[in-house]
């Protein structure tokens, strides 16, 4: 590992103030976002979000001839706000002329489109997890109906190409992943009920499909495939020979299980532990961790030591491919190759095509790095474990400052930015991110903490936050910060902390409990747990039952752990950034907190919801946060 004190320096510039190649406009305006890659024949398609086009999301294709094409209409931004977080807003199948046929939702209007025609549009209905029927007669979807009073109602529907809509199933609080079998005879899905979340307890079901003379569908007898153990079982997906795969965590880690229909029964088969967790928390629809090949073979996306890896199961033996880092499992092309969104640590995301080993090539880059940028300018995450409270071990990703122009002085240590991810059931992602490189290229060290409750480390680690949100997450970010200070990696006088959404609560709790951090930034963060549970949307309405306790029975705990309650204990300066249309964490949470703090600044972004999308917002947020830290450093 390179000694930063021995790099060439172009003048004595204090770390934290280095000029950087990562400009705010590069972060916000030029980087494409890739999601939900699909294949059809030899077509590669993905959802591409373009900041310079007001954050519009487009279904983009790489054609068999090697060209690019935008396939969704120019007036549409493909997306959905079901559960507020969305996902699964489109699907593709290969038509009779070997060209792709699309079905998708328009984020702007909620309309459901087949190709160039909008067949359904309503002020009260939203559609997600859209999946073509095997015969192409229509599509399955989760429909969320919003009402004037009460929670939105979720149902499973089938919609024909002409817009005839049939409700297939209702009654559960939540549905996800309606997936038809390759022969069109079966439909699988999973569901869950309040107060559970999809990573705590779900049910997997399958039913036969019956066609009506009018072109609609109905479900036959429904079979529960969940099994005797209480667990999270998610992501059903069929092999071509009729085996149904899913991933479940009854063993302690999300791992594949499969079901084969024989003699009128669904026979369950477990598969050997791969050494990695195969499954992602179901925050958004449309995630894919499994690609069944046949009843006994599959590809999978695993998480090991915080990093994504591809794994292949053949003849009961797992093989790992650690030199690619997809965001979802690779998808097959008809010529035997695969396509995937590659998210390595050293370069920005790109779309790749090729073999799991051997020849591969990039077909689309999310952004071209400026000329002159070298590998020395990019900080690579180093997995880190550290001791925390109760004798437990927690995890983080450490990034050192990186520049081939500037270096630390002989006796200098870099300032630190600790990151507390949202969720809190989420994870620090090791893929290349400008939100990290923005800081490291300016001479900051970054510590992205996978505190207890994070995913990728098994069910027990995830459940360690149960009843203890606002306690052990704070323990862990403080322990992580102290660990890198004790190791002599960072300047103990210039440690800061930032967090978004749930991470905002962690930031404020850490500032109140310790003087490790001299300043903090809260992006659309939680400050009032009672307000959150009373105001938030349906998907998270009972989330805090597990993280804090049932409400209002545990109201005293909600009060105790709310930053608003202990605001007087926070003496450090805090920057708040929030959108005025946030439906997940209300703007009032930031406003009320700022009014109680000794040193606080709030900036509100018009038209922004939970998470910033507009180019101007993202640029301003980075500039504002950097200036905030530099001003704090200058005052020392």
UniProtKB/TrEMBL annotation:
Pfam families: Peptidase_S9. Residues 431-633 form the Peptidase S9 prolyl oligopeptidase catalytic domain. This is Peptidase S9. The lineage of its organism: Bacteria, Pseudomonadati, Pseudomonadota, Alphaproteobacteria, Acetobacterales.
């Amino acid at each position: 590992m390179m000694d930063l004190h021995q790099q060439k320096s172009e003048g004595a510039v204090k770390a934290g103030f280095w000029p950087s190649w990562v400009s705010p406009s590069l972060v916000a305006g030029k980087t494409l976002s890739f999601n939900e890659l699909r294949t059809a024949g030899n077509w590669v398609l993905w959802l591409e979000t373009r900041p310079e086009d007001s954050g519009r999301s487009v279904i983009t294709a790489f054609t068999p001839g090697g060209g690019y094409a935008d396939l969704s209409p120019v007036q549409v931004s493909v997306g959905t706000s079901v559960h507020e977080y969305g996902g699964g807003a489109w699907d593709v199948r290969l038509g009779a002329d070997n060209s792709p046929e699309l079905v998708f939702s328009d984020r702007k209007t909620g309309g459901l489109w087949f190709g160039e025609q909008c067949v359904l549009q309503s002020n009260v209905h939203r559609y997600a997890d859209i999946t073509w029927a095997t015969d192409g007669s229509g599509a399955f979807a989760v429909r969320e109906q919003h009402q004037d009073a009460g929670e939105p109602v979720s149902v499973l529907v089938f919609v024909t190409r002409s817009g005839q809509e049939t409700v297939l199933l209702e009654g559960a609080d939540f549905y996800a992943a309606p997936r038809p079998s390759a022969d069109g005879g079966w439909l699988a899905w999973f569901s869950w009920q309040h107060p559970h979340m999809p990573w705590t307890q779900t049910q997997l079901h399958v039913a036969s499909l019956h066609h009506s003379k009018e072109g609609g569908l109905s479900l036959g007898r429904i079979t529960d495939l969940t099994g005797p153990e209480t667990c999270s079982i998610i992501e059903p997906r069929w092999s071509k020979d009729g085996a149904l795969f899913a991933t479940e965590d009854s063993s302690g880690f999300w791992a594949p299980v499969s079901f084969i229909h024989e003699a009128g029964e669904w026979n369950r088969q477990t598969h050997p532990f791969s050494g990695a967790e195969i499954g992602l928390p179901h925050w958004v629809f449309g995630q894919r961790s499994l690609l069944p090949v046949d009843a006994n073979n599959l590809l999978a996306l695993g998480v090991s030591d915080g990093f994504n890896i591809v794994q292949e199961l053949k003849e009961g033996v797992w093989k790992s491919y650690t030199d690619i880092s997809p965001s979802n499992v690779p998808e097959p092309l008809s010529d035997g190759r695969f396509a995937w969104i590659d998210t390595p640590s050293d370069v920005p995301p790109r779309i790749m095509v090729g073999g799991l080993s051997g020849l591969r090539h990039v077909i689309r880059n999310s952004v071209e790095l400026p000329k002159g940028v070298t590998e020395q300018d990019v900080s690579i995450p180093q997995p880190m474990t550290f001791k925390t409270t109760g004798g437990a071990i927690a995890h983080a990703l450490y990034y050192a400052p990186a520049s081939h122009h500037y270096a630390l002085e002989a006796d200098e240590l870099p300032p630190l930015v600790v990151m507390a991810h949202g969720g809190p059931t989420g994870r620090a992602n090791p893929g290349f991110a400008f939100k990290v490189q923005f800081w490291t290229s300016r001479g900051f060290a970054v510590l992205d903490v996978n505190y207890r409750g994070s995913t990728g480390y098994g069910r027990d680690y995830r459940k360690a936050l149960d009843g203890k949100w606002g306690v052990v997450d704070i323990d862990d970010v403080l322990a992580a910060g102290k660990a890198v200070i004790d190791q002599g990696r960072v300047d103990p006088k210039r440690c800061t902390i930032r967090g978004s959404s749930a991470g905002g609560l962690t930031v404020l709790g850490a500032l109140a409990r310790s003087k490790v951090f001299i300043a903090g930034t809260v992006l659309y963060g939680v400050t009032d747990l009672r307000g959150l549970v009373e105001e938030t949307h349906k998907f998270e309405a009972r989330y805090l039952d597990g993280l804090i306790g049932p409400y209002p029975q545990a109201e005293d705990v909600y009060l105790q752990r709310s930053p608003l309650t202990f605001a007087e204990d926070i003496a450090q300066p805090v920057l708040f950034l929030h959108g005025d249309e946030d439906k997940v964490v209300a703007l009032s949470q930031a406003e009320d907190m700022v009014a109680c703090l000794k040193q606080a600044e709030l900036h509100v972004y018009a038209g922004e919801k939970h998470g910033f999308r507009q180019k101007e917002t993202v640029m301003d947020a980075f500039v504002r946060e950097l200036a905030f830290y530099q001003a704090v450093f200058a005052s020392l």
